[in-house]
Specification:
The complex is a heterotrimer of chains A (345), B (317) and C (328). Chain A is built from 13 helices and 12 strands. In chain A, strands 6-7-8-3-9-10-12-11 form an 8-stranded mixed β-sheet, sandwiched between helices. A 4-stranded antiparallel β-sheet of chain A has the order 2-1-4-5, with helices on one face. Chain A has a single domain, classed as P-loop containing nucleotide triphosphate hydrolases (Rossmann fold), CATH 3.40.50. Chain A is α/β, with parallel strands linked by helices. The longest helix of chain B is centred in the middle third of the chain and has 37 residues. Chain B has 317 residues and is mostly helical. Chain B is built from 13 helices and no strands. In chain B, helix 6 packs across helix 12 and helix 12 runs antiparallel to helix 13. Chain B is 72% helix and 0% strand. Chain C is α/β, with parallel strands linked by helices. In chain C, the strands form 2 sheets. Chain C has an 8-stranded mixed β-sheet with strand order 6-7-8-3-9-10-12-11, with helices on both faces. Chain C has a 4-stranded antiparallel β-sheet with strand order 2-1-4-5, with helices on one face. The N and C termini of chain C lie far apart (45 Å). The mean pLDDT of chain C is 89. Classes of the chains: A alpha/beta (345), B mainly alpha (317), C alpha/beta (328). At the A-C interface, helix 7, helix 8, helix 9 and helix 11 of A face helix 7, helix 8, helix 9 and helix 11 of C.
């Protein structure tokens, strides 16, 4: 029963330091055409700032959500946090160990086991040529968690049962499962090495609503049971509200507002957050007066100068067009907005 | 938890596997196409006959003691002057044409299969490495492929053949010639595998299941062979089948040009080359029967390749 | 008043080597002039196939195996392909999830609009272009006189979907079929397109069949909603009723499983299991294996859609079940 026992509840003293600290994280991608084309066509280098100056922290057993539309950089941040993409600037510190510090190689390797990820598309995140039990067993074998094949099989069975699947179905291939069942397999794989911290990148956006409810409920149950910490990436505000303790809103690679969930939904501060909340069609809020939303997300390759949101912002003034706002603390929230800073809204 | 352990350890039984194969879409589409079934039968007959040549051939064309120049230039058995011992007639050295075809097919198929395997292994490995590593390695491999594809197969074969003559002298034994053929045909066919595999690898390596494997620290080589490779072999199988036909043709061409196997160990191409000298003398059987066998084999393998391509393409189903 | 669209006992089948799959079974509904009917369901419910059947674009070997489709009282499901092609575009406009499926990437959008307008009317080239310009302005394309000569790839996703709307409305159709028109778009753009779709159809007097998996979009847009499950309609009724007081246990579960912005919920309502595959649709009521309130007749007898309050529902909880079932 090693799967269940080793995830002991954290001690009270441990809660003092956040489990995950993301400091000034940034990533620039080179999206230029090949060198030869640039030379012959006289094109400049094109850089895409997928994320910049992203700072937040996540406490143990907490769910921190990043929301944003396409091109907001939320998935890039998720991949940097788990170490799949190297950051251009800043660092990710997990349990006091910097993930970009070469000196702590051994510590980092040990940390690997404690961080896992659940991906968006359960059709792409499971190798179609592998049986479910081999998929779930891979981390067990890679980290040498199970001592023998029999032990591996036993643990895989427990894991499958844990996520609500029949262990006998382990011999099936991914295409024989429904979307929700596949996401359960992906969750079982993520749980296999007893992680403390799981990054969930849009885990339910490829699923139907009733299946989404099953998966969200399962994730919350698992969090309670094993004391998991989640970084939850989503574009769906209702899902985020249901799952998160604290929320960060991203726009064009920057965190524009970070606030406790309740506060954000009761009193959104940043004009973009307000606009998002207003734009979501919701069953219980039909018939409300909606402010017309203007414009679309600009191309992140050449973002507007100053505050990136200013072309769509009803409160933008001259300062917003030239000067990037810095994060300020108001109430329980951190906001990047000149209008909020100046008390105009 | 003994019950689940037992269930999980149980591997898929052979019977289940056979049932799964018989119920698959591949078998279904095979059984629905008469052309494909015919092609498979022709291929099977030629391959089995070639494999069993020492058992079913009435004569051993390699055994000089059995040959007699008195029996040379015999027409097929049903023509006047034909000898019942030599069903399809004899060639200029008195060898039974039917037997030499059996032994010749053996040579042709062996070289074709080995060359295809060699090209496949080389191309798949280079394609996987190029696609997964990217950057300079990718650029170097793919430029090499570009250069390779500007040389026709025959030119490469002549180059290698020439090199081997320089190395081993004119008196090369059949073993060396055999491998020279495999090497030269294989070298001219790897490019297509490499390009295809590289393309699929570029797609697969960004899929989340590869990211998930990277996340738990699986080594790149292991990811390549255990995760990526099984997902890119589909199109490779199609190429391999069509390439097998091409390789057999190329070998025949080379042998016909005199670069290939010697007349003492003839392949189908060598037989046609021997026969064409006597075509205008009216002794058509020496060239035509090996020619028909070669055409039938290549056409059948090609048809199988076409079927495989369509059957594996989900868009056409 | 004749409904714009009337679907009667529609049945769509896909013959496969493993037997005939029934994708749509006995589906009936009407859309009144100017009405927006939402068709909602999870993947595999058959909502898109219903839309494709109405416009006669079921891909062979799939076929309409029964029932009829009436456009303003005229049967259109048995028309020859040539006549059906004239009806599509002229009398029925179409909007799909991916705007690029409706736009040809090789032609300027102005050309595509003018072609569509001229195919279905007798307008001259210049009059058609004038109309195209006014349509683009109407759908909110900024500076339409310069943008009209742009190619589809020069537009953003939201702008493309606006162009598709202009294209769908170009021939003043009586009915617009919109299949997941906002699914590929960002939330903020989604709201714009929904508002636009609603306003345009009201202005042009077109009825709308809005197919989507997003209950929120339906709540904002539709007048009535049909909830589909396993190729059948489980419940159909006024949007407010279906959302606030769903009758069918599936609709109830579906509504409860949607997280809300308005209030905290500790646990979402969970329907066990998943939508059956077409190869294994349960007998009787197809929802019975997942239904918390299934009882005697459900596994054996198929409930018909029958009126209940202001809606119609296919569930034995609301109708007297057959006597033979009671005897079991």
């Amino acid at each position: 029963m090693s799967v269940m026992t080793s995830a002991a509840p954290p001690l009270a003293s441990e809660a003092a330091r956040p489990l995950v600290e993301v400091k000034n994280l940034g990533r620039v991608f080179d999206v230029s055409k090949p060198w030869l084309n640039r030379l012959t066509e006289g094109l400049p280098r094109r850089l895409l700032t997928a994320a910049a100056e992203v700072t937040f922290s996540i406490n143990k057993r907490e769910t921190f959500a990043l929301v944003g539309e396409s091109g907001s950089g939320k998935s890039t941040v998720a991949k940097m946090v788990v170490g799949l993409i190297a950051p251009t600037t800043g660092e990710v510190i997990i349990d006091g160990v910097s993930m970009s510090d070469r000196r702590h190689d051994a510590d980092r390797r040990r940390l690997r086991r404690r961080i896992q990820m659940v991906f968006q598309d359960p059709y792409a995140s499971l190798n179609p040529r592998w049986r479910a039990l081999d998929i779930v067993a891979e981390p067990l074998r890679a980290f040498g968690i199970a001592q023998s094949e029999a032990e591996t099989a036993k643990q895989v069975g427990e894991l499958l049962r844990l996520v609500g699947l029949d262990p006998a179905d382990g011999t099936k291939y991914p295409h024989e499962f429904s979307g929700g069942q596949r996401q359960r397999i992906a969750i079982a794989r993520a749980l296999a090495c007893n992680p403390e911290f799981i990054v969930c990148d849009e885990p339910t956006s490829a699923l139907d609503v009733s299946v989404q409810a099953q998966i969200l409920n399962l994730m919350r149950d698992l969090q309670d049971r094993f004391g998991l910490t989640y970084l939850f990436i989503s574009h769906n505000l209702a899902v985020v509200r249901h799952m998160a303790n604290r929320i960060g809103v991203m726009y064009l690679g920057r965190l524009v507002e970070v606030a406790p969930a309740r506060e954000m939904f009761a009193k959104p501060k940043h004009p973009y957050t307000r606009m998002l909340l207003d734009a979501v069609p919701d069953l219980d809020l039909t018939g409300r007066k909606r402010k017309p939303v203007e414009g679309e997300v600009p191309n992140p390759v050449d973002p507007p100068p100053g505050c990136p949101f200013h072309p769509r912002c009803p409160f933008a003034n001259e300062r917003c067009r030239v000067e990037m706002p810095q994060p300020i603390l108001t109430g329980g929230a951190t906001v990047r907005c000149h209008a909020v800073e100046e008390g105009r809204i | 938890m003994a019950d689940t352990t037992a269930l999980l350890v149980t591997r898929i039984t052979t019977r289940e596997r056979i049932r799964a194969v018989l119920g698959s879409d591949l078998v279904y589409s095979f059984l629905r196409s008469r052309v494909t079934i015919a092609a498979a039968m022709v291929t099977a007959i030629i391959v089995i006959a070639a494999l069993l040549a020492p058992l079913i051939a009435p004569h051993d064309p390699y055994d000089l003691r059995q040959l007699s120049l008195l029996d040379s230039h015999n027409p097929p058995a049903w023509l006047s002057g034909g000898d019942m011992r030599f069903l399809l007639g004899t060639d200029d050295q008195g060898r039974d044409v039917f037997s030499t075809i059996l032994y010749g097919s053996r040579q042709s198929i062996a070289i074709g299969v080995m060359a295809t395997l060699f090209a496949g292994m080389l191309g798949i490995s280079l394609g996987l490495i190029a696609g997964y590593t990217g950057g300079t390695v990718d650029a170097v491999i793919m430029r090499a492929a570009d250069i390779q594809s500007t040389f026709p197969a025959i030119l490469i074969a002549m180059l290698i053949d020439g090199t081997s003559r320089a190395l081993f002298g004119e008196q090369r034994n059949e073993q060396i010639v055999f491998w020279v053929m495999v090497l030269s045909i294989g070298l001219s066919f790897w490019v297509q595998y490499a390009r295809t595999v590289r393309g699929s690898t570029l797609v697969e390596k960004n899929k989340d299941y590869v990211l998930a494997a990277r996340l738990i620290g699986i080594a790149p080589v292991k990811i390549l062979f255990r995760h990526v490779l099984p997902n890119v072999v589909g199109p490779v199988l199609v190429i391999a089948t069509i390439n097998l036909a091409l390789a057999i043709i190329t070998e025949a061409t080379l042998s016909f040009l005199g670069l290939g196997l010697p007349s003492t160990q003839p392949s189908l191409g060598t037989l046609i080359q021997i026969g064409q000298k006597y075509l205008f003398a009216g002794e058509w059987w020496i060239a035509i029967f090996p020619g028909i066998t070669l055409a039938a084999l290549v056409l059948a393998v090609n048809l199988l390749g076409d079927w495989l391509r369509d059957a594996l393409n989900p868009k056409l189903r | 008043m004749t409904p714009v669209l009337s679907v009667r006992n529609l049945k769509v089948e896909f013959p496969t080597r493993r037997g005939v799959l029934t994708a749509i079974d006995d589906v009936s509904f009407d859309i009144a002039p100017g009405e927006v009917l939402g068709v909602v369901g999870e993947s595999g419910a058959g909502k898109s196939i219903t839309g494709t059947a109405v416009i006669g674009l079921i891909e062979p070997p799939g076929r309409i195996a029964g029932g009829e489709v009436l456009l303003r009282g005229q049967r259109i499901d048995n028309l020859p392909p040539e006549q059906m092609r004239k009806i599509r575009g002229k009398r029925i406009g179409m909007v799909f999830q991916d705007p690029l499926t409706s736009l040809n990437p090789l032609y300027r959008i102005g050309y595509q609009l003018v072609e569509t307008i001229r195919t279905h009317s007798s307008l001259s080239e210049s009059a058609a272009r004038k109309k195209a310009l006014s349509l683009l302005e109407e759908v909110g394309i900024p500076a339409p006189d310069t943008r009209i000569d742009a190619y589809p790839h020069q537009f953003s996703g939201g702008m493309r979907q606006r162009v598709v709307l202009a294209l769908a409305l170009a021939a003043e159709p009586e009915l617009v079929i919109a299949d997941e028109p906002t699914t590929a778009l960002d939330v903020s753009v989604q709201a714009q397109i929904i508002a636009l779709l609603k306003r345009l159809c009201a202005q042009h007097g077109a009825a709308v069949m809005l197919i989507t998996h997003d209950m929120g979009v339906i709540a904002e847009t539709a007048d009535r909603v049909a909830v589909m499950y396993a190729g059948r309609i489980a419940e159909i009724g006024p949007v407010r009723e279906v959302i606030k007081a769903p009758l069918h246990p599936y609709t109830k579960g579906l509504m409860g499983s949607i997280p809300s912005l308005a209030h905290d919920s500790d646990r979402l309502v969970q329907i066990p299991g998943s939508m059956p595959r077409l190869t294994a649709i349960p007998s009787g009521c197809p929802f019975h294996p997942r239904c918390p309130r299934a009882f005697v007749p459900c596994p054996t007898f198929r409930p018909e859609l029958q009126p209940e309050q202001s809606s119609q529902v296919a569930c034995w909880l609301y109708h007297p079940f057959p006597v033979t079932a009671a005897a079991l």
